[in-house]
Amino acid sequence: MTPHFKADPAFDPGSIVVCDWPLCQVRLQDDTRFPWLILIPRREGLHEIADLDPAGRAALMEEIVRAGDVVRMLAEAAHRPVQKLNVAALGNVTAQLHVHVVGRRHDDGLWPDPVWGRGAALPYGPAALQAAASRIRLSQAG
Amino acid sequence: MTPHFKADPAFDPGSIVVCDWPLCQVRLQDDTRFPWLILIPRREGLHEIADLDPAGRAALMEEIVRAGDVVRMLAEAAHRPVQKLNVAALGNVTAQLHVHVVGRRHDDGLWPDPVWGRGAALPYGPAALQAAASRIRLSQAG
What we know:
The structure is a homodimer.
Chain A: E1 15-20, E2 24-29, E3 36-41, H1 54-77, E4 84-89, E5 99-104, H2 126-138
Antiparallel strand pairs in A: 1-2, 2-3, 3-5, 4-5
């Protein structure tokens, strides 16, 4: 969105870039416990939702809905349909504005607790992670 | 928003109704550890953000921003300014669509963890809770 946008390198160890949507960089969290996207608005210097202008906020909301569709698609491909979406802009660890969209199930091991800061990620492995990212890019929602 | 809207009674033990905004019922969480509002869109049968139409979603986004202003105001009145807002639509415990807007500080006792499902609430006490709700109603943001 701005030529100076750069995702905080703190996102790199836990997630990969899937694609860019009109507002956000879309990342897939490398954690097979949950279908989990991270949306990072591609503008510089954002920390809070209020740092986006109203048009940007409306775009973010629509990309949150689209990310929910992607998460549902990933979950269905894994034969573990989403029972509840968890959507959150926290930023306590990495301050750059970003929104988590996580698919939850009653049997997901952490239910009903939130996912952040609980348990260790179960990585996909490099090939499976890239395959999941490709699946998103090729999907209608992606 | 619809005549049939009713907040789930599960919200009652932990929060009080402050006022109605164009879309949402605004509730104050009864927990002095954090300045914390809950927004419940006043339409029937909502569980996910995607259950709102696009206009409703845009309205929700703007009320999230407004709730952030209220949370900042409450925090400043308590001489503990907000350092980060946490915004989340979870719904794992109470499925009716609602959004938490929580003011966080590095010294708030749970930082950087999320607030949900961690530690016990520290209630305001009835008079202080009503006073905080009044302060919100009388404020510019409220």
